[in-house]
Every structure is written in structure tokens, then in C-alpha cells.
Amino acid sequence: MKKLTLVVCVFMLTFLIVNAQTKQITGTVTSADDGLGMPGVSVVIKGTTVGSSTDIDGKYIIEAQASDVLTFSFVGMVTQEVPVGDKTIIDVVLLVESIGVEEVIVTAVGIKRSEKSLGYSATSVKSDEFNKTAPSNIMSGVTGKVAGVQISSSSGAPGASTKVVLRGYSSVGGNNQPLYVVDGVPMNNSTAGTGTLNDAVDFGNRAGDINPDDVESMTILKGASATALYGSRAANGVIMIVTKSGSQSDKLNVSISSSVEFSQVANLPDFQNEFGQGWDAVWRSDENGSWGPRFDGKLRPWGNTVDNSQLVKPFVAQKDNLKDFFDIGKTYKNSISVSGGGDKTTFYASYSNVSADGFIPTDADEYTRNTFALKGTHEITEQLKISASVNYVVKTANAVAVGQQLLTGGEPLMGEIYQLPRDFSLVDGEDYNSTFYNFANFYTPYASNPYQSIGENSNSQRENRIYGNVGLTYELTPEITLSYKLGTDVANTHIKQSSNAFSYKGTNNSSKQDLIGGQMEKERYNSEVNSDLLVTFKKDLNEDFNLNLIAGWNVNQRDFRTSYILVNNLDIPDFDHITNSASTPIVEYFESQRRIYGVFSQADIAFRNYLFLNVVARNDWSSTLPSGDNSFFYPGVGLTFIATDAIPELSKVFSFAKLRASWGKTGNDADPYSLVNTLAKGNVSLGFGDLRFPMTNPVTGQKVMSWEVSNELKNPNIKPELTTEIEVGADLRFFNGRLGIDFAWYKKNTKDQITNVDLPSSSGYTSRIANLGEIQNKGIEAALSINPVKGKLTWNALITFTRNRSKVISLLDGITKLDLAPVNAVEYRAEVGKPLGVYYGQDFERDPSGNIVVNPANGMPNVATDNVYFGDSNYDFTMGMNNTFSYKGFDLSFSLDWRQGGLMYSRTSYYMSFTGNGPLTTYNDRETWVVPGSVVDNGDGTYSENTTPIAADDLDSGFWTLPGMDRARVVDKSFVKLRELTLGYTIPKNITSKFGLERVNLSVYGRNLITWRASENKFVDPEATTFGNDLTSEYGEYAGMPSSRSYGISLKVNF
Amino acid sequence: MKDMKIKYISLAVFMALISQLFMACEKDYLEINTDPNFPTEVPGYVIFPAAVMSTTGTLSTQIGITTGMWAQHYTQSNVANQFKEIDQFNLTFSDYDRPWREFYSGALNDYLAIKNFAEADEDWTMYLMATVMEAYTYQYMVDLWDNVPYTEAGVEFHPVFDKGQDVYNGLLASLDLALSKEVSDFPGNLAKYDMVFGGDISLWKQFANTLKLKLYMRMYGVNESVSKPAIEALLLADNLLTTDAGIVSFEDADNQRNPLMEYNFHGLNTGNNLVASKTLLRYLQINGDPRVEEFYDVNNAGLYAGLAQGDYTNTEILNGELSLIREVATKPVFFISEAECYFLQAEAILRTGGNPKVMYDLAVTTALMQYNESAESFLESGGAYEFPSGGSFDEQLEAIIQQKWVALFQGTNSTEAYIEHVRTGYPTESDLPYGDENGYIYGQFTYPVNGVSSGVYPKRLPSVKDENQNNQNADDLVDAFQPVWWNK
User: Are A766 and B105 in contact (CB < 8 Å)?
Assistant: First the structure.
């Protein structure tokens, strides 16, 4: 045995010695581009520093051994390795490094086109990009990464809505959210919650149901010519989502991803910590505000006396009383997918689970989502393919209401919290049944224990949803393909709201109105069926011209049904059931159905692969428009010129240069039932409380139901809302693609807005549906991609810049403004000549020189008669900055989101003024003062200096919530956020492969770690909203939920 | 061969799909836009109850509270502050947006629709009912806001404002037209749609005549030559109300209660805003009037205690020491009560030269009978409310209006009490503070403690900003201190 070993060793050695002999190798390196010799190419023996480089003709000489491997490299070219072996002449052709222009993008109706040929801006984002911080919601991973796209979260609650606005708001009355299209089939993106002053509960939008791990890529189509094929639903852009599929190989791929995330409350208001409980500068232990004396640290008995005892607290600020109240939120996210296939078949199956408990104590804010996906394709013959995909989503959520009041009568959390004085320790009240913290003995009748607010009120949602499609593709001839896809999206939602009843009669808080309690049950059903038939014709006409024609036929039907029961005056305590009341419940039912069918066609003509003309056209017929006049036509045209292909000399400057221009139209039809007047249930709104039919006739004793003429006047002549958009752009890349600029300028005009226009009530109506005026959005989008360092260490940077300017060009004749405010606080309008969404509010009366005019009796400013202009809610510009550094297996990336300008209404600001909890209220140490520069009206057109200071008893909320203080409720919403910070490590393949693993990636990440707010915003997260996810959401927040920052760790394993 | 087969099958499938799709082209495929959720056409009588309740609810809540305070029936308590601006006479142009809106888009639009249906169907019974309610609603709008949209209201998007006087004339003409038509009782099965009289059309005629009388009385001061003969004719015809016109009771259930109760106790956070005003409370107490128990609740000590009008900043009186106004869920809302009709006739008789004593006594008796109390001791010789038969015209008028003021306590009726004060000057506005020693007489108005209008009382409601901003043809805004047309 030993002998044999020796023999082998000798043999091997001999072999090595023989091979170690060096020889001279020569050759020429040429470029694949032009076939010419390339000078300066480095030729190195792999693993050594021995090397040479090519001469002016691309020739080289090098000494090497047969066992060596030669490496040929040149900036911008693909590095090649060639084993020497027995060769002595090695010629090499170097290829230009791909710079991503040959990518294929899925465009409207699932049509694949080369990105290079597109005449409009289409940004594709890959799975790795939006899954960096393992977000539960697919869109939140794209924030700041695509120019022209504004993505915001309404709050930090788990499962909260994500709002996506492409190129500004263009519809005042309709929907401004983009159309989400999954694998070619439109999906429902409605919200089940409510964005209204009362009963404001956010259960998220349905695009949030998509499991981000299932998504291969997402393409954002912004312009009208890109989306014209979707016709009447794509006026706000389209988000095309392509899900993962298996591949036609026997290999089975399994991928697992898991993450754990912790979240913390962020962007709470700033507080003052100098003055404590009381009012009028006097300590009062039953007051809900901090208008009391300066903190002195002395022990004070406070609150109600119960059984002859009272609580005692040191009179000091509880600086972190809010932070302490909130918990650490936790999110667990797990998903597994299996994919593979055979000769003719592919499949993909996945399951994911998200379980989140937000930062509010208890399970009042929870979100659980389970998704199941199954997708497969099969080639029946070479010509005939079938595919199917089905997704099942089961979702439950608990959410804490914001805004003013719940339908069921309960008090939303944040409004209660902000009223507690600075020396109140929230956590002491955690046991809200304890003697001093229960509803009967809570120290104040003006606010309630926040733990009671979350413990005794609940909002929950359960949803089951199925969406998917089946498709057939048949290649009739090599030129002609027929394909058909039938998709559906069905969701069933149950929403429940409960508020327990409390009677304060006979308690220490008997001056407080009883909470009557209530129970609300709502069922919602949404379904959508979409059918697409496509005929594709593809032909190379001659050497120069290629033709690609598509014709299609689309039918779409959407159904909605909802029923609702509300009952107040709950009877048995803690029995949350709709039957638990002697009162007559309020019952509502609503259903709607709409249909559209359309024919569409697209022609692509390519000339020598550098000039592309794309013409699209679609005609829709909609059920929601007047029957004789329900057809509308959307054309679009795009022209693309690849300058670097057409004029090779340009390659000296540009590695790629493309110029594009496009023009297109899209539109919106009306909501169902907008044409014919109806009657409404008899209901008299008293201002506080209602009279509702059925009522009893007091003379005959019979119950009687009554209807009244609806206050909304319908319009039998409504026309579709049409958006026309023109776009020009350029995609320029330099230094072999290491620097790239993608630039677009667009102008988008939306005419004949379908909206409700206010009428004076003397007309008999309060509003009418009308086609109204025109809104313009124009702007620029730029994305700068830089790759400054390449090699072992790679640095990629992407900077996006967006500037959108909206303008209300016209409204109806004689109407110059339209009220958009969702609440009756500060005005929010569409006004001719101004950007869409401008704030007006009450100001102090001013003399002609602008000095504040005060009432000489008390030194308090008078309120001006006319409201004044404050500004608008639009950002001046937004920028995203994304950086990724890679070194070996490590990956460090961060992204910043900067949004500059714009105003928002903040109810939290009001609370901070009203309760004296805000830092502003310590102005002048709360000593009396004369309004600076104020004057008094002499009554004869002249004014003289005011010397009357504000009376001591007005120095509290009396002054700080004066009606003329509206401007203080509207704050600058500029911010910079550190959106994402990720450090990832991918274990080298040579290690993982030993364990049979393809890829193992471990990341730690943070999301929304830091927010820099504008200095006048001391109140809320500048993205916060209480009013849904459309235009009214821009209005601002009404004691909205704070946002969160989160930290997590994620593990992704493929094998 | 197999391939060919599949080819044909595939083609067939596609053709089938295509034909299926083109079926969608059928004409009625898109004809699904009829709203299944709401009726598009109903008979007028189905609309009538909701319209009547709009008039009822709107007059009884915000407007009722305003006028009730201005009539000094009650005042803002010092432990709450919801209505303090009303008591200060410190109103803004947007304060009455809601009632204005509810009048036009909750009541008047419906009366107009009912009249249009009724006219087309020649259903003059329904026509009369809607006309009376429409006129009643407009009458208060003119009395509160003077010029209001009338001829173009409910017809044009931006109706012009008609002069108060023209509206009055229009209302009288519309009542005359409706009364001139042939009417019959409501069919029994529809009686439930008449929330006021249960289908008794003869009572609607009386209501119409009484309303005419009220309109003529209102304009007497500026238009005596027209009003006087009309009043004489109405008295002569003697077809006026002898019963209460209104919603005679409510149900104690959510959204079914007396509107003031629903608003002030159930809708608002605190039910302790409205307390007895010393003006009326002391007047009742001094006269030993038993209605004090009907109007107010006792305080925590079991006594009746009022607050000086407008003294909501008082810090000496503690929570629970004042009498709240007595609100009852089932309490009626009268459009024109029987007593009011008699008071109106008493004044009419006085103005047309007759002796109003009998009618005055009947009015006071009826007013007390409303609460099952006897008026006998008050009316007898030397009684607190004895009619001053030997007194001057002014003394007699004051006696009538002073008693009318008491009778019209709370709800819709306080609006009438306030307007009658504006028209006649009774109860008298005193410059003196409460108290007997300085000559102040209880029952006279005192200027509210925190008033901001330098001693001037409001003569109407301020104009409505919401209407002003949305209506291109709106009149300029007018504050609460400008008189309405019949007060000039």
C-alpha cells in the first residue's frame, strides 16, 4: 500500500515538473464592438502579479506555464479568463460590459418590451431592492428609490396604509392612487378602514396584501402613453407587479426568509417640562392641562378623594411619560417558497406569515397576514401553453382609532393622551380598574385614562381574499400568437367596532357625559373579474424594419356590497355583541356594480433597432356613463431614438444615449350611479344628534318611514375625465455605464374632472356632480446613478430628484374655488391659479401696515373677517439618496428621503396649545405681555399703539387657541428621513455549498431611523394623515397615530 | 396528426372565448347603472314626514336655543360654555350655516318637490299641507334673516335673494291659492304620513288661516292698510286653530326624542349648559306661577335658582346650585299652539278696535291648561295676570305679549317669543340690574352681563356665510343688529 502511494506521488510530481515549464504566449486582443485591436488591456497570470499589457495594435507577449490562467481585463469590458494549456497563441475578443439597456420590461397588459425601445419613463425595481429591509408592505421598500413617485405611510401602526402618488394629484374628486396590476390582471387596492373625522380607523390598503417575497420585479409606469392601454383606470399610473415563477429545469429551488423586527414610537410632539397641572396658573388637581404653576418638586395630593384617601405626587415633569406608555412593537415575518419544473412545466408555491404587534400596549394594534401562492405553467404542445396562478390572503388586524370620535361613541386614544398634564405618569394608570384610575375616580372628568381608551374600545378587521388568473397562449403561426387571460380578485371583509358603556352618574366624574357604548358590524365584499384577449403579430419586414402589432379586447366588472349594523346603548357590561341593546339598531346596505369593455391596439415599429415608434389606442365603453355617450378613446404615441446606435461616433462620449418623447391620453369614468337623482333616507341632522326615520307618528301611533330629496344633485350628462400627458426624456450613460442620468420632463393636464361641486343650499341641494375645469401637473424627474468604485469594493449610488408643480387652471364657470377639507377646521381648497390643495384660515385682524389689531378692553387680538392664504400642501421637491457598498460578501446600504416644502394641518398642534403641553405655551415664561407691535382701532380709520397686556386669565388656552391662530395649526411638512440602513452579509458560496445551500444572506436593518422635521413642526410625523390615502389625506392629521422607527434582522436562505 | 387535432381544439376554444366576449357587446351589457340602493321616485306623502321633521328639528335646536336665550327664558350656565357667544350677542356669520342649510336642503326642497308632484297629480290635499309647512318655514326665515331666496330657491343653482316683504306677499298668495282648491281628508291608510294632524285636512285649513293671521299681524306696523282688513276678515270667518299645531309628542329612544333633548342632552358632551334665567324664573316665582316646575328643574338643594342673564363668568355659584331647564324626551314641539293662536287673536281684536279680554283670558287659561294648571286665580280681579281692561292700548298690548312670552317657553315657541319681543318691544328692555329696590320690574329683560354689543339687543340673526360664499347672487352680509323689513 505504501508503495503504491509513493508511485502515485512520483507520477504526480513528474507531471507537475513537466507542466511547470514556461513558454511564450502571444496574441491580439480585439473589441467585439468594432473588431479593432485594443491597446492597454491588462493581461495578468491569475493569482499572481505577473503581467503585461497590449500595445497600440492590441498585441501582447507574456511568459506563462501551461497550468496558468490568463486574465484579460479592461475598464468597461467583460473580463475574460483563458487557461493556457498547450496553446502558444491566444487571441481574445472582449465584450462590452452590459449596462442594463437590453433589459426586458413588462409593460401594459403584460406585454414584454425591451427597455431600450420605450418612449416613456418606466422604472423597474427588482426584488433585492425593495426587500432590503424586509418590509411587510411592498411599496414601502421603494420609497425614495424611484423619481416621480411619492410614497408615504399614514402612521407607524402595523398594517397602516401606504399611499402612492405618481406625478402629483390630478383628480380632485376621483381616485389618485395608481392601478396595481399583478401578472397582467388589475387588483383591488381599496381600503376597508375609514379616513373620516369620526371613526377614523386605518386597516391599510389592499396592495399591502402582496407578499413582497413573491415578487420578482415591479415596474412603475407613470405617463399616459405608458398606461393608455389600461384606458380608464390608469390615469394615475400603473404599478406592474410580476411574481416569481419556477424555471423549466428539474432543479428544485427552496427559499426561506425570516425576519424579526422591533419598532418604537417616533415623532411624538415636543413638550414643555416647566409647568404642570392646573389652569389659569393655578394648581388644580382635576384639570386636564398643564396651565398650572411652575414645577417646584413639592409633594401634592391630587385627584379625587376615594374612601378618604388621595394620591400624592411630586410636582415634577414626567419627561418621558408618553414614551414610557408605548411598548416595543414586534413583527415576525416568515416566508418559504418552493419552485421548479420539468421539461414542459414550471411551478412556484409559497407561504408567508406576518405577525405584528405595534407599539401601543396591549393587543389593540395587531396585524396578522398569511399568504398562500401557487403558480404554474404547462406547455401542452410547443404552440399551446397554459398558466394559472392563485393567491389566498387571510388577514386580521386590530387598529386604534384616531380622529375625533368613534361611531360607537368611544374616545380615540391620542386625543386623550395629549390632554394629560406633564406631571401625569401614564404608566401608573395601566390597571384602569384600580381605585384612582378607573373611570369613576379618574382625576379629571375632561379626559379619560388612555389605558381605558384602548382597553374598552376595539376595532378589528378580518379579511379573506383570493386573487389569481388562468391564461392560455397559442402560437398560431410563428408570427401570430393568441393569448387569453381571465383574472379575478375577490375579498370578503368583516369589520367590528366595540365601545363599552360607562355611566358616570353618582361618581366623582358625574359631570362627564355618560359613554353609552356601542357595537358596529360591517361586512364588505369586493370582487373584480377581468378578461383580456390578445392577438400578437410579429414580423421582421425587411432588414431595416421590424413590426410588432397587438390587438386586444378587455372586459372588466367590479362589484361591491356592504352591510352595516350599528347599535348604541349597550346593556350588559363587557358583552360585545350587536344584540346587546334595547335600542333600535341602524341598518345600512349598499351595493354597486360597474362594467367596462374596451378594445385596444398597439403597434411597434423598429427601424434598424435604433429608432422606435410606438402607437397605442384604446376605446372604452363604461356602464357608469350616460348610455348614449359612454364611449371614450385614448390614443398614445411614443418615439425613441438610440443615438449611440445610430451614430457610432457618439460612443466616444456616451456609452449609451437615448432620447424619447411621448404623448398620450388616459381617463376616469364616473362612479356608479352618478347620473340619476335619488331619494335619501329621512334624516334630520341637528348639529349635535340626529332625528332619523322611521319615526312614530304621534297622532296615529304608527311607525312611519320617510324619504327626502337627496342633497346631491346627479348629472345625466357626465363626461369622462380625460388626462393628456406629454413627456420628453433622455437616458444618458457615460464611462461604460458607470454614470447614468435618466431625465424626464412631463406635463399632464386633466380636464373635465368629475367631482362634487358645492351649491348654495338655497338651490335645494348642497352639491352637484359636474365635470369641472382642468388641473395641470408638470415637473421634472431625474435619476442619477453612479458607480464610483468598482472591483472588490463596489459603491453604487442612486440619487432621484422630483419636482412637480400642480396648478388649478380652471374650475366651473363662475366658480373659483372648491372646498376639499375633510374636516371643518382650516380651509383646504382647489383654487384657480393656485396649486391643488391650498390652505386658508382665520388670521388676526391687521391694520393697513400689517400690525395686529387688538381689543382695547383685554389686549386680545381681533379675528380678521376674511380668511387668509397660508400656502399649499405640495412638496417643492423630493429627493432620494441611495447608497450601496459591497465588499466581498458584505453589503452596506442606506437610503435618505428628503421632501422639501408643503404644509399640513395638525390637530396635535391644537392639543399642544389647548393643554399648555407644547413648548410654545411657555412664551414669556407665561408672564403677561402686550402683543408685540399691536395696535388698537381708533374707530376713525386710524390706529394707535396698544398698551393693554393680555389679561392673566387669558394667558392660557384663551390666547393660544384664539380663532385667529389658525396659521399655528398648519405646519411645514418638510423632512429628511433616514429610511433604510442595512448591513448584510452573504456567506461565500464555497462555504454554503458544503451544506447544500445555494445562498445564505444575513442582514441587520433599520427603517425610518431618524427624522429631521422642519423647525415649526414640533408635533407629528410629517407624513402622518388621518384622512385615507387620496387627496384629502394631504390635508393632515387629526390627533393621528405617531410613526415608528424599527430595527430588524433578517435571514434569507436559498437551496 | 395529433398536433393538428390540438391546433383545431385550441382554435375552437379561442373562437368560443371570442364569441363569449363579443356577447358582452350586447346593448344592455352596460345598462346596469340604476342605483339599487335608493328609490328614484316616491309619492309626495312619503317625503312629507321627513320635511316636517326638518322644520321641527331645525327650529327647535340651534335657533331655538339662540332665541330662547335672547328671550331670556334661560341662559348659559357658569359651569360650561357651549353657548356663551349667543348670550354675549357675539355672533359670527358662519354660526347659522347649518340651520340655513337644513331649512333649504332638508325642508324647503322637499316641500317644493311635494307641491310639484301634487300639482301634477292634482292632489290638492297634499298640496295644501306642503304649502302650509313651506309658508311656516319661510315665515321664520324672513323673520330671522329678512331677505332670503324664495322665487328661485330650489329652481336655480344660484338663486337671487327676494326682499322679506316680497316673500311674505308670496307666502300669503300661496296660502290663498292652496286654500282655494278642492281638498279632502287623507285616505286612512296614509294618515300616518301626516305627523301633525293625522290626515285631518280641516285642521290644516285652520293652520293655514292662523298662519295668515300671524303674517298679517307681523306686518301690521308697516302695512296697516293691507293688514287690517285682512285680519278683520280672518276673525270674521273664524276658522282658526282651536287645537295645537305641531308634533305633539316624541318617543324616548335614540334619534327619536324631542330635538332639543336629543341635541342638548344626547348629542352634546355636557347637559348642563342651559340654566334658568333670573328674568323669567323670578317673574314666575313672584307671581306664584306653577309653570316654574314645568320649565325648570330644582338644583341640588331642591330649590329653584336662576342665573343673571349672561352671567356665565360667575365664580361664586358652584356646580349644582342652579336650575337647569327641564327637558323631557317626549315633550312636544308646537308650530302654533292653541294658546298662541288665542294670544294672536287677542292682539288682533285689540288692534281692530275690539275688546280682547275674553280672548286674552282664554289664551292665558289655555296656556296654563297646557300643563294642567288652572288660570282662574291669576285672571280674577286682582290676580297677577288680570287683564288691564281699563288700561291704555299699550298696557293692554303689553299684558297680552307678556303672557304670550311666558306661554311660548322653550323649543320652537321661544323663537316666536323672541320675534314678538322684537316686534312689540315686550317684555320691556330695562336698563336696570335685577332687584326690586331700584325700580326694576321682574319680567323685564336685562342686558346680558357679558354682552359685547354696548347695550344693543339683536334684532335678527346674522347673515349666513356659507350661502354668501357659495351663491354668486347672494346679498351682502348683514349683522344681527339690523332690523328686518317689518321692523323698520
Answer: yes
